[in-house]
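Continuing the batch. This is chain 6 of the set; chains 1 through 5 are on the previous pages. Same settings as before, nothing changed between runs. Recording input and output for traceability.
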Amino acid sequence: MVITVTDTIIRLFNKISVLAICTVLTFSSQAEPWNLTPRVSVEEVVTDNVELSPTDETISFVTLISPGINAQYVSGGALADIDYEFIQVLYSHDLGERDNFNQMEAMGRIELWPEGMAAFATYSIDNVAENSARNALADLVAGNTVQFQRFRAGLEYNVTSSSVTTSAQLAYLYDTAQDAIGDREGYSGFFNTRSGNAARNIFWDASGQILDTSNNRRSGQYWNADIVIGWITGFKLNPFVRFYDEDTEGNLLDTQIQGTSSFGFGIRWQIIDSLDVDLAWNQVDEDSANQPDVDFLAPPEDYISGAINWQPSARTLLRAKFFQRFYGDAYQASFRHRMRKLTTTLAYNEAIELFDRYNFVDQQLEVWCLGLTPGDFSSCIVGPNESFDLTGYTFVGFASDVGLRQSETYSLNKTLNFSTSLALKRTTYHLGIRKTKRTELEFGDDDIYEYFNIGASREVTRNATVDASFSYIKNDFDRDFDEAEAQIDHYRIWAAEWNEELNSTLTLTIYGQHLNRNSNRFLLNYNENRIGIELVKEF
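Output for chain 6:
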């Protein structure tokens, strides 16, 4: 199916969505006062390896002075929450990085009428890793961050009843980074609707999404729809028809992605009131299907799809399905369960992305050394910028590096998330696991990101808590297409923190951290220890 949305409609929707939010919040601010909370924080950090060197460790004192303000507004169906912070960083060494930063989180929402329609807007300023292959844990202390801004504004609709559950959203989006990598502008949307228990003759389950974005050079559009409509027979077996379609457009570099469409018939078996299972046979529309000529994308063919929905109570929900998309077999799953003190969630999703900050390429960087002795690389610098003074340095060769580039192809992100927490009277234990496999769909390059975290939080007194955690991160940058050496990074972080409210407006935080990075590229290995203390005063 061809996506056709004119520029005039897009511009009109963008103006209406932004104007709706601004107008409503302006009128609301005249009706009720805003709750303003200014603050200032002072943080002192001591690190024994501020330049994250594998051999030449440098001790440094870093001071962060951060005035900020929080503004909140709640009145009827309108709410807003804005939090801004300016951060001035003072280094006891010459890191060569910028020394002032901005951070912001803002949101606003207004109900347009009580039937579920609302307008919303969100805006954020973050400081993210300049290159997560160079250092995935880059922060304001060690440097190598870039400012990244995100803006969303649009309309959403949410209704829940015994007959139907529906959620939908259409939003203008704008992302921009300090280095222009990940810049994009356009709109996105989704819808989910499902019949409820009160449905008598017809049942349905439909979902879909659309993403239409562009940057300075390229544009890309993607959409999909999965629709099931069936007849309630009054017996345990209910027939239905299923339609699935997804498509792409634009001038990205992809040649393998042309979309797919299928139509099928199936049976829903309602085993019990809270459990039903779907099974369907689907025929692929050969006229719309693309036959990829690469081995990492399976050719489309007729297939069997299935789904399971189980909700025995408000505390437990399981939904999962398997089907076929343009790249082959596809799966989705979500599970949540809540007991008195234990909460567990599990989710698996496969999503298409474009213009993100995760497109890495192999590159060669110059290596310059000062007073080099055999086996000693402590005085070497890799990839010096134009402002670096190379007087006295000697060029010794090139080093292979994984560089960040603007993504101009579609990528497939397969993500598994698991989290569980046990909340006792004064202690909370938590465990989190995440794994993402990102596949560049034009060339088949795979990058794998793994994350593990376990920790505990203990309420020592009424005003004080102590936290301890261990985190493990593994990033595997596979550049097989470029016939270059893969880069595999392991991060291990041990952390502890004491947090105490000294009075109603003054908070003290003391923390320590040990970080070990181990990479198959020697120059990226390092160990770092930090101790920090922070005071936050609200006014």
